[in-house]
Amino acid sequence: MVKIEYNRPLIAAALVLAVILLGLIVSAGWLVAADLRVSNALSLRVGQSSAQLIAFLQGASWIGGGTPRWIIVILLSALVWRWCGRRCAVALAGASLLSNFASNALKFAFDRARPDIIEHLDHVSSASYPSGHATSAAVVYLLLAWLAPPRWRRFAWTLAAAMILLNAFSRIMLGVHWASDIVGGTLLGTAFALLGAWWASRSGSGASRKTSPAPKIPLS
Question: Where do the coiled-coil regions begin and end (predicted)?
Answer without folding.
Answer: none
